[in-house]
Amino acid sequence: MRKIIYWVHTSVDGFVDGPNGEFDWTELGPELADYAHEVHDGVDTFLYGRVVWEMMSGYWPTADKESDHPHDQEFAPIWRETPKIVFSRTLRGPLDWNTTVINSDVAESVAALKSGTGKDLLLNGGSGMAATLADLGLVDEIQVIVHPVILGGGKRLLPIARTALELTGTRTFDNRSVLLSYTLG
């Protein structure tokens, strides 16, 4: 069975974006970029909620033409080619860049994805969608990248009820950020 991996960047104080929705505080050094590519090699579908989809689709389609950052150069083509699923009550498909929209029956749709064939599924950012899937018991692994910044407000990392997690690994990248890997217990 395929796993859903929730991949998320957070501040030390547990926010995935700033008080005004800003996401300009993450820093992808060479080690973290290499790890991100390892993660992407193990998945074949990206999952998004609407808000994160809008952010990603506003940048990644042309990032390799607009940025000289090595990660952007390598990841933009991967992003364009990888199948994407957006969960939204308001968006209607089809969308560009190999994207499907699911408007209802989230639990049934995700359960079908997980029982299908292929590599794992990567849920990027988006604490709301992650909370929905975690509450449904559909998130298998959480990979939290903690960045050395305090935001003082914004959206919480994972707004769900008390849930036991099992630490499965830690790793430091570029002497800046720390990966905390968990399974839901």
From TrEMBL:
Name of this protein: Bacterial bifunctional deaminase-reductase C-terminal domain-containing protein
SUPFAM superfamilies the record matches: Dihydrofolate reductase-like (SSF53597)
Gene3D superfamilies tied to this protein: Dihydrofolate Reductase, subunit A
Source organism: Asanoa iriomotensis
Taxonomic lineage: Bacteria, Bacillati, Actinomycetota, Actinomycetes, Micromonosporales
Entry-linked InterPro entries: DHFR-like_dom_sf (IPR024072), RibDG_C (IPR002734), Riboflavin_Biosynth_HTPR (IPR050765)
Annotated ranges, domain Bacterial bifunctional deaminase-reductase C-terminal: 2-178
Domain of life of the native organism: Bacteria
Pfam families, per database record: RibD_C (PF01872)
